[in-house]
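Lecture 7 notes: from sequence to structure.
We start with the chain below.
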Amino acid sequence: NLEVKASKQNFVRMLHPDDRKPAATLLQRHLNGRSRFEIEYRIQHKSGEYLWFLGSGQAAWDAKGKPLRMVGSIQKIQRRKIAEIAINRYAEDLQRSNEDLEQFAYVASHDLKAPLRGIGNLAQWIEENMAGKMDPETDSYMQLLKGRISRLESLLAGLLQYSRAGVGEIQAQSVDLNQLIGNISDLLCTEQQGFVVNFELPKIFVQQSMITQVLQNLIGNSIKHHLGGSGQINIGYERSATEHVISVADDGPGIDPAMSDRVFKMFQTLKPRDEVEGSGMGLAIVKKLIERCNGEVWIDREQQQGCCIKFSLPIDESMAEQGNSVLNTAIQ
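Predicted structure tokens for the same chain:
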């Protein structure tokens, strides 16, 4: 009473054309090399529609290694496979959209630099030609124009930096966080600006360019938004079984809880740009870099005064073991 006679020819004929060769190749590999036979393929239903199945089988060989017979089973996986295909397609579309957005950000920020530079030059030439001839009101307008040009340059630089964040990263390496923080402090002139950076940190395996950019942005933010002539910045470190957790805390005015969800978005600033100059890209870049390394970044609300931003990075066990091996060898 079978609708289709059981035969190898009929089975192959019912397979989707794109699945025939992979199935035949896997079957031959199983018969010759006794490798596992399990494959997903499409079989044509009597309605003409192709449905997804999971096929598995096991051959039996004689004493000379010649295949005698094969038993197996097929399981319908249509719903799971359709959902899987839809998820994969969505992930591909999302990745494509992100790539297009980053490319747009790069092109926009890069191509707008030249005309903006031209506008800045024109403003400077006008100011030079009108030196001593502008009344106070006109002079204030000129300073406002130059300030707006400088701000737009900063925004474009931040946008370009955001589009490049996390691109072309190299493998994790051993990084001395104490030395790194010292270099960043020198670069930002923290001492000259009246800030003391406190830290006592270990060496960890991490992408150096990424962790440098993250810590530089966070320390720079603490200085920029402190609003005082001096202050304390504390860099902390904790380690769990699976991740590093690093914190950057200051004794400034802190972040309004209402802004907690916004500060990590692009072009968001805590105060109007007329009060505190900035592109609003610093924390957005931090978030992008950390998440690209499968980490997280958040504001620690347990600190009573100032602002404390923490971020976590997964521990690379293979690199950690390699580091321990190198350390043990050095000690011996």
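Points to note: The radius of gyration is 31 Å. The chain has three domains: 8-76, 94-164, 173-323.
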